[in-house]
Amino acid sequence: MKSDKGTLQANGFNPAEHPNTKLLTHSDVVRLFVPSALLKRDDLDPGIVACLEARDACHGLEVDAAKIYRVRTGNFFTDFTNFHRRTETTGCRFHGVILFVDDLVMYRSWGGQPRVNEVENTKNPLGPLQDIGPSLLSIK
Q1: Closest alpha carbon to 29 in 12, 44, 9, 7
Q2: Residue 111, C-beta contacts closer than 8 angstroms, at least 6 positions apart
Q3: For the chain, what is the domain count?
Q4: pLDDT tens across 63-114, in order?
Q5: Which residue range forms the structural domain that includes residue 61?
Q6: Which of 1, 76, 99, 134 is 20 to 30 A (C-alpha) from 35?
Q7: In this structure, is residue 91 part of a structural domain?
């Protein structure tokens, strides 16, 4: 509740230049932070409550950023002929939310996955003929 949009832009965060920024309206903020009747007003952060009470003056930004690399590793021949494919995925993901009342930041939250490391192995014993079955059945 100290920063404003000008401070964010001075620090290098301009939502108009960031490609993965979603502008949130008041109704988007309500859907995001009040998902069910189980959540009481006292359970919410004071900044969220102040934003919700501001009605049309309440808006926000939702930032989803990722830097993901996918690399196929292993034997070229088995990959090319579709017998065995191994794909390694690495990188990071970030998700952040900033709520404003007029130009004053009322709430901010961030999280994500600082290190993505996934391996996908696909084995097809029939290789290139693995997916040919359904197309042959439709021919009369």
Answers
A1: 44
A2: 94, 95, 96
A3: 1
A4: 999 999 999 988 888 888 888 999 999 999 999 999 999 889 999 999 999 9
A5: 5-128
A6: 1
A7: yes
